[in-house]
Amino acid sequence: MPPPSTGARQRAKSSQATLDDVARHAGVSSASVSRMMKEPSSVSAKMRARIEASINELAWVPHAAARALATHSTRTIGAVFPTLANEHFSTAIQVLQEELERSDYTLLLACSEYDAQRELRQARKMIERGVDAMVLVGDAHHQELYPLLRARGIPFVSTFTYRTGADPICIGSDNFSMFYGTTRYLLAQGHTHFGMLAQSTVMNDRAAARREGVYRALAEDGLTIRPTHFAEGHSGVNQGRCLFRQVMESKPWPTALICGNGSFAMGAVLEAQAMGIKVPDQLTIFGFDDFELMKELPVAISTVRVPSKEIGRKAAQYLIAALNPGTGEDEWEQMAECVAEMVLRASSGPPRTPD
């Protein structure tokens, strides 16, 4: 085997550079390098430039494990989301990451696919890697998860849900109120025959709360949804199309169809078009989330818009405050609710008066 090239030897050597090597190369003390890494503004611009030049030339990377031992912090935040195939989750994750980076925290992300055991395993792995705090979605988790986080003293927050006085603190919107309000609006429009494409409630307390909101609002007017006008699934535009066709097999048709997520709503509009059903003349379709495509379809979809960016930003700010006592973490009970917005578009209207 030929000996390694000069470049390879240099790379191997530089990969083993230490903080002391950087200090000697820059002609400063080790304490100055350490101080600059912790708080760049604590050293002069001239010194910072010399240190950064040495770091680049030596290809030095701080030893995370050593720093964690010294500071008792990895400056890493763990987050377990149910799925990444959801636009409002991915939007929140992006903002969460950006907000954490501003405070020199790194985001470690996992996807549970609505599996409680998997979520627990992922959380354990993150704890093993020393995460300082965790972001979760909703309140439906493995029974061991909250006790584990509390026993380890790891701050955490539940997102995309909200309840007054919740423990742990919840940052998000009130899912019950969202769909209760939507249903009351449709009732006020004159609708009395409702259908629903509901998202599965398996490991999804948000979907359960939205479903309850619909049924509670209807019950107040002595109404309900016929079993044949109710269909349940997980997600996906194609599944939305299948569920829509299933509901519309039973006549008389509902005049208002409430969809438990954005992909179901898009599937419903596309399948209605394929079946020759006029939206909203023959059927109002109301969605959830506000995916970009929902306003770009031939019939733009009325929906409940979840403030995903605000949820991601507030989750990051809350955990940063919790990890730095005295920075306002006690005030979050008043700031945790992120109010959803009803967005009215072409897919909704009053029921058509029979000819």
**Strand arrangement, largest sheet?**
7-6-8-9-10-11
CATH level 1 class label of the largest domain = Alpha Beta
Distance between the termini: 88 Å
What level of helicity do the residues show?
40-55%
Instruction: Give me the CATH architecture of the largest domain, please.
Output: 3-Layer(aba) Sandwich
Pick out the low-confidence regions: 1-14
Please state the average pLDDT score. Answer: 89
Radius of gyration over C-alpha positions, nearest whole angstrom: 26 Å
Number of strands: 11
Coarse morphology? elongated
Kindly name the structural category. alpha/beta
Report the β-strand fraction as a percent range. Answer: 5-15%
Number of helices in the DSSP assignment: 13
Oligomer: single chain
CATH H-level name of the largest domain... which superfamily? Response regulator
Number of domains: 3
Largest sheet: 6 strands, mixed
- CATH fold label of the largest domain: Rossmann fold
Helix-strand pattern = HHHHHEHEHEHEEHEHEHEHEEHE
